[in-house]
Amino acid sequence: MMNKVQAEKQVVKIGFNALTDCASIVMAAVLGFDEKYGIKIVPSKESSWASVRDKLLTGELDAAHALYGMVYGTQLGIGSTARDMAVLMNLNRNGQAITLSRRLAEQGATDGATLAKLMAQEPRTYTFAQTFPTGTHAMWLHYWLAAHGIDPLRDVRAITVPPAQMVPYLKAGHMDGFCAGEPWNHQAIMEGVGITAATSQQIWPEHPEKVLAASRDFVRSHPNTSRAMIAAVLEASRWIDASSANRMAMAEIISSAAYVNTGKDAISQRILGHYQDGMGNSWEDAHALRFHHEGAVNFPYLSDGMWFMTQQRRWGLLKSDPDYHHVASAVQQTSLYKEAAEWTETPVPQGVLRSSTLMDGKVWDGRDPARYAASFAIRQ
After folding, report:
1. Measured distance CA(297)–CA(93) in Å, rounded
2. pLDDT by residue (tens digit) across 323-367?
């Protein structure tokens, strides 16, 4: 079903950071899916997630490739003035990783268990980087460390580094490891400075990752434009996932200086599910980066949004439990999404919650978020 509704704003500026998972926004513009729905997407390369947040709030950006937890942190006033935010759709699942320095690997720390053993044997200040304090990478890193008995707030020093700066910081010896999106984990292996200790899909198979976000003010005043953005990005997501050839073509385009600014080889292996850890082990990953997966990736489940609030509560970023379901129902734009999904003939799930089992065996289904947040042995 085609969009017959006039967009309130025809030219939309969508921010992104230099990561493989910006691809659906870039390809929506490059392949002309945006024009099909009466808009023109102008991708805008940003220097950090803080820049993305600030420009969304000032209106310099209309929408953005954004961190799930950053959107909810802004909604709840963590680290910034509280502002009503909107998640238009999920952009991708999986495809992030935790990298440890080659120096740590040579000391025997190659995964969570051996890292915990080394930290016990050699007490010092271990420094790990994530990309934004409330974002997905901070939460994956915290979850992974805690699952191995390492308290991320007391046992390590956390720093915030923009994604594209992770490898230079690691190479310079400023940190012991990091959690970030691709291609920077694979780039660390290519440059011989890091190893992949864990993928994010090992922490939570089929986990939600980036979202297409906007301020709620923008969505209220531009509902037709918002639907058109969702529809265009849905079509681009479907196109990327349709074949390996499409993924390789995408890698060629986004590797350019205008977007991720790295070699195509840094992107191409892991988007095809071909993984190596930098220590001679390789595997085909059944839960590699996905952009569409017959629409299963893209629906903005309430439980996906709520999970990040449970972790913000777990780590003391929230001092009390929010009304999880109420907040998520306001942020997740499920009605707009369903309308755009109808335009693009994208299947939608029957429910707004989904169930997942994470690496520590805990089941998350969104039904009792306050109890879930309080259930962890290691928490603030």
Report:
1. 6
2. 999 999 999 999 999 999 999 999 999 999 999 999 999 999 999
- Mean of pLDDT values over 276-292: 97
CA distance 166 to 184: 7
pLDDT tens for 79-138 read 889 999 999 999 999 999 999 999 999 999 999 999 999 999 999 999 999 999 999 999
C-beta of residue 155 within 8 angstroms of C-beta of residue 142 = no
* Residue extents of the structural domains in the chain: 11-93+209-272+292-363, 96-203
78-84, Cβ contacts within 8 angstroms, sequence gap of 24 or more: 78/133, 78/134, 78/312, 78/317, 78/318, 79/133, 79/134, 80/53, 81/57, 83/57, 83/215, 83/216, 84/215, 84/216, 84/217, 84/330
Q: Are 296 and 360 in contact (CB under 8 A)?
A: no
Write down the number of H helices and E strands in the chain.
18, 14
CATH superfamily membership of 11-93+209-272+292-363:
Periplasmic binding protein-like II (3.40.190.10)
Q: 371 is written with which tokens?
A: 């109890």
Read off the tokens for 242. 């349709």
- Residue 276: beta bridge partners? 282
Quick one: angle between helices 223-241 and 334-343, nearest 10? 60
Say which CATH topology domain 96-203 has: D-Maltodextrin-Binding Protein; domain 2 (3.40.190)
Structure tokens at 322: 């929010």
The answer to whether 194 touches 99, Cβ cutoff 8 Å, is yes
156-160/96-101 β-pairing: unpaired
Model pLDDT, residue 4? 61
**What's the mean pLDDT in 251-274?**
97
Share of the chain above pLDDT 90, in %: 98
- Cis preceding linkage at 223, omega within 30: no
Whether the domain at 11-93+209-272+292-363 and the domain at 96-203 fall into the same CATH topology:
yes
